[in-house]
Amino acid sequence: MKGRVAQMTGIEQITVKEFDVPKAEKGQVIMKVLKSNICGSDVHMWEGKHIFKNHVMGHEMVGEVYELGEGVTTDYAGQPVKVGDKICPVYYLTCLKCEACLEGNYNVCTHGSDFQGQVADKYPHFTGSFATHYVIQPNQFFYKVPDGIPDNVVAGANCGISQMLYAMEGSGLKPNDYVVVQGMGGLGLFTSAICDVMGANVIAVDAVEDRLNEAKAFGAKFTIDMKKFPTKEERLAEIKKITGAKGPDMVVDVSGVPSAFDEAVRMAKIGGTVIEIGNVSIEESQCTTIVPGLIVRKCLTVKGILRYQPIHLYRTLQFLARYHDKYPFNSLTDKCYSLDETQLALQKAANKEVKRAIIEPNL
Ligand SMILES: [Zn+2]
Ligand SMILES: [Zn+2]
Q1: Residue 103 CA: which ligand is closest?
Q2: Of the ligands numbered here, which is closest to the C-alpha atom of 113?
Q3: The domain containing residue 87 runs over which residues?
Q4: For residue range 330-363, what is the model confidence (pLDDT) as tens digits?
Q5: Same domain, yes or no, for 287 and 268?
Q6: pLDDT tens digit string along 217-241?
């Protein structure tokens, strides 16, 4: 059986290559990819702004079991699996043996990307999801997909939604709390829906009116348009009109703009929490100025969140089974492309001509 993968072969360059689909080794699962979303980080990689270069692209995926390796009879929630079952894997590996894994921090396993950044020519070839097939390694968590959730929605479950569920579950957020969410891209909308389900009052901040309207559909009770309130002082005053003088209980930054962190620290109430997710770059150029004394004097808790614990993918799938109809998750992906159109799809995504493109590798 031959399969095909879309490999990055230069900056903004994709080549589709053909290989034999490997036989499932002990503990592995070979998955046939049904749909794979183009994530913002995929665009980032394609533009050459990431350590992964010349790798098989794609990490947000849903597929069907094509072959089970020896010893694999269930998913990681103990649910029996057979060929043809719909599954969704965590996109990173968990070796269970490194210092991070030994402390239960599976999300930062030092072997997490052992296969993800690999070139296509190297066995087992099918190491990204812009491909007809994908090899799930031993100790790489995967879960059966509950019935009824559209594939479009599931394809994004193993990245942004799981990350936000992980972040909010561990945040200490309480019903009726006020939470400011900075940035209403996909992560912001997911945060809004999750916080709404948790009974909190979401205040969505963005500079794009359409996104603020989407935020309302995803459960935000209040919106602040940065075009109408262009300075941080104006936004702070506006937020205090909503929360009262104390300010919001929590601020979640998913904007990816360094100065948003400074603003978050200024907004949060005494004893409040700031969650930083959007700023992932560690380049010097991504510095911002903050007043550390504000963190001290307000006794703030500041948390950074990368990826998610594998179990949060399971919980995300349960969350989507219950809420995919309540919030318009299905509207977040808008255009499908074949594997041969991966280059075009990435171009459209980079130019923001599509909201979120999907690759359907077996079209
Ligand atoms: Zn992603
Ligand atoms: Zn590890």
Answers
A1: 2
A2: 2
A3: 2-155+333-360
A4: 999 989 999 999 999 999 999 989 989 999 999 8
A5: yes
A6: 999 999 999 999 999 999 999 999 9
Ligand 1 centroid vs 208 CA: distance in angstroms?
22
pLDDT tens for residues 98-130?
999 999 999 999 999 998 888 999 999 999 999
Looking at the structure, tell me whether residues 143 and 175 fall in a common domain. no
If we measure between CA atoms, which residue out of 62, 72, 77 comes closest to residue 314?
77
Q: Quick one: tokens of 128? A: 């990204």
Whole-number Å distance, alpha carbon 206 to ligand 1 midpoint, is 21
Ligand closest to the CA atom of residue 106: 2
Report the sign of the C-alpha dihedral through residues 169, 170, 174, 178, in that order.
negative
**What is the reported pTM?**
0.95
Q: Is residue 63 part of a domain?
A: yes
Q: Using the mean position of ligand 1's atoms as its centre, give its distance from the Cα of residue 306 in Å.
A: 12
Cis-peptide, bond into residue 124, ω within 30° of zero? yes
Tens of pLDDT along 80-102? 999 999 999 999 999 999 999 99
Distance 124 CA to ligand 2 centre (A): 20
CA of 215 to the centre of ligand 1 (A): 20
Residue 108: how many other CB atoms lie within 10 Å:
14
Q: Calculate how far, in angstroms, residue 271's C-alpha sits from the geometric centre of ligand 1.
A: 32
* 150 plus 165 within the same structural domain: no
Backbone φ, ψ for residue 362 (5° rounding): -105, 25
Q: How far is the CA of 307 from the centre of ligand 1 (A)?
A: 9
The closest alpha carbon to 157, from 295, 347, 321, 17, belongs to 321
